[in-house]
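Researcher: Going back to the complex we discussed earlier. I've cleaned up the inputs and rechecked each line, so this should be the final set. Can you rerun the prediction on the complete assembly and write out the structure?
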Amino acid sequence: MPSRQYATFEVADQLFGVDVAQVQEVLRFHEYTRVPLAPTSVGGLFNLRGQVIDAVDLRVQLGLPARDLSVPAMNVIVSVDDEWVSLLVDRIGEVIELDDEAFEPPPDTLAGAYRHLIIGTFKLEDRLMLALDARRAADTTVPVPAQHADEARMARSA
Amino acid sequence: MDELDDIIQEFLVESHENLDQLDRDLVALEQDPGSREMLSSIFRTIHTIKGTSGFLAFHRLETLTHAGESLLSRLRDGAQRMNPASADALLAMVDTVRTLLGSIEESGGEGDVDVEPVIAMVAACIEDPAAPAPARAAAPASKAETKAETVESVEAVEAVEPAAPEKPADPPAAKAAKSAPARAAKGPAAGADETAGQNTKRGIADSSIRVDVDLLDTLMRLVGELVLTRNQIVRGVSEISDPALVRTTQRLNLITSELQESVMKTRMQPIDHIWSKLPRVVRDLSGAMGKKVKLAMEGKETELDRSLLEAVKDPLTHLVRNAVDHGIETAAERVAKGKDPEGTLTLRAAHEGGHVIVEIKDDGAGIDVDRVAQTALDRGVVTRDQLSRMDTREIIALVFRAGFSTAKKVTNVSGRGVGMDVVKTNIEQIGGAVDVDSTLGAGTTWRLTIPLTLAIIQALTVECGAERYAIPQVGVDELVFVDGQSGQTIEHVSGAPVYRLRGKLLPLVRLDETLGLPVRNSDRDVYIAVLQADGRRFGLVVDRVLNTEEIVVKPLSGRMKDVGVYAGSTIVGDGKVALILDIPSLARRAHLAAETIERAQVDQADARPRDSHIERLLIAGIGERRVAIPLDMVTRLEEFPVQRIERVGSREVVQYRDHILPVIRLASLLGCYDVEEGETVPAVVYTERGRSVALVVQQIVDIVEDHIESRSDLDDDGLTGSAVIQQRVTELLDVRRAILAADPRFYAEMSESMVGA
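Model: Rerun complete. Updated structure for the full complex:
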């Protein structure tokens, strides 16, 4: 049965996953350089072994308040269009292997930013994992769709 | 002769490369005889060699390649098909070309290489007797004869191959195609080895290689990383006092610098690459305009990064054309002025403090400041008020503004109002700067300051709101520390911050405010970086100035570029990322902000009665009276020691910045009795078109922005009326009339001096 490996992480208690092939590395970092006037979803820049990496705040991308970057944050560094981008997340999970069969398209009830950023859902034993579209998640030029708090809740319970 | 040698060298290098490619192409062509594309490519190569050899007077080479070309053109046009015989003939031709090139390289001449047999062989392959016959017409070859001819020809090839180490026994025709190229590959190589053994001189083809620019870019990037790491180590080691480590670090420092320099050199090309086309440009242009222009070049060998060279090419050409078109006068005009009828245009390039300076200097008419001012007014580039505050240099710099051109008539060369602003934009885009200096009647000098490379720049690092920013050094004029202790402050003119820099008002841009950071409350103990962009000077207010260092510019990702105020990012000594500020964008952004303020004011004013208007006024006290001077008229505020005011005839003057400044005492002008003076007197310096006058007042009270409602007309000399400002009746000074009242010749002399200069 065809299956795929996902690197998982949590943002606002929701489990997300991206295809492991897209993930370059995962690291905890704390010295971000703020970029004034940039969209709020740009958390900052940091130096990864001589390379300047943009850190995109997934919380903002999901329509939530921005992360406090004065404390160390977890970075999931993904490769999007030959460029490395860091996605700032709350917690890192395991790498899990999932059967394509467990995949379902996003539920119709899912709205706003979540719907924009995810490809589909995977039913795990005890919870759901949302498969993230890394390219869209890293795209800060698209304004985050309006999202109400209850919609966000709905997305989490979806 | 040197130049010719250079051309021959280049020709040899290029031809060697082309021939290697030809060998491969010809063999490949045999597999795919119908490939028009490949035939065209081969044809072009041979054609190039033929053309150049004709130009360099290598006649045998020319005749030989001409023969090859004839055959190739038939093959290319489909007049006949490629067959083994033609391939052999062509390969033989390539070999002979190679032999000839070898001889040229060694002795500078074609030596005694015999080309006739190969020419005959190639001619034999041409199936159509009507075709233009090569040097010596050969009997048309029938298909039956082809084979025999080939054998003969192969022997002929051998005969002309002096470098061939051994002569094999007559090979069967079938083998010929294989062995000929094999030997061809061996022949020149053996020759080269011999040469190397004899006098250790490397052959031209061996002493230089072509390298992919991408590879050089990668090298450059890696060296950039190394520079950063070096900076970090140097910083770290300075905190530890281990002599051995310090020594090693110094060595690392040195090696890194040398490596950086060497790698940068690989990308360097002499500026002559772009200059070499200019003599022709100047010749044609001056000829077309009936002018005589001598072009002098100094510092041709000055090198700069190839990408920069490319970027400088167009601006430079434009400046040269402009100098010939507008700068240098016609021979008749020059003679009338007592100049040499032949004008001189001098290009000068030199390295100077980490930059390359390129000067374009002409001894022509110079820039007429008056006309520039008038044109700028006519075209709406500046307002009269703005103009009145400008000094000569600033007025000349107006030529860089968009939509400006002083050409009396539009010529097909320049003068369409596009150009100087484009020149400026292009040069600023690569982190450079353009300056112009001109003396009416004596000539104009344009000065380009270009960074050596794009990847590593000198930058000033500053701190603002707990973050560090880098400012490219090229735009930084000076640094000012606003010392709260000594009472220096930042002042505000209708909400816009300004600083009195040596008496002149410098508009300020607060970095924190512009970047939307929390704005600090205190204006004390801040630094002002005086910057130059888009022909404007402004001060950037930052919290702290850290240092100047070489930084490696990292390109921004798309999402950061959109922000618009950053030119890139860099990694500073402690490993943190710092953003590089884009000064022109910052200036534009700040300018935009200023416009917004003005617009807001206009809106406010619109809401009020029509007849009132807003003015920024400098309030001066004279005895008990208050006089308001429009701030637009004021260029500087000075304090002069009383004893420095001297008398010349009936007038008072003061020596000021190498000039004699007429002094006008407003008190006596307005009929006040001189109130007692301190040791110094405050003065308002008013400048118009390079001429200044000092208006001595008793006291400078304030700068206010007022919206004047109650105003009464006065008939006093030098006053336009009075108004209530800050609950006090204040007289409004008409500066021009005041000056005229005190010194009727001020404007007269000024116009004289404009004419006479």
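Model: Worth noting: Chain B touches chain A at residues 225, 228-229, 465, 467-468, 515-517, 554, 557-560, 562-566, 569, 571, 575-579 (CB under 8 Å).
Researcher: Good, that matches what I expected from the previous run.
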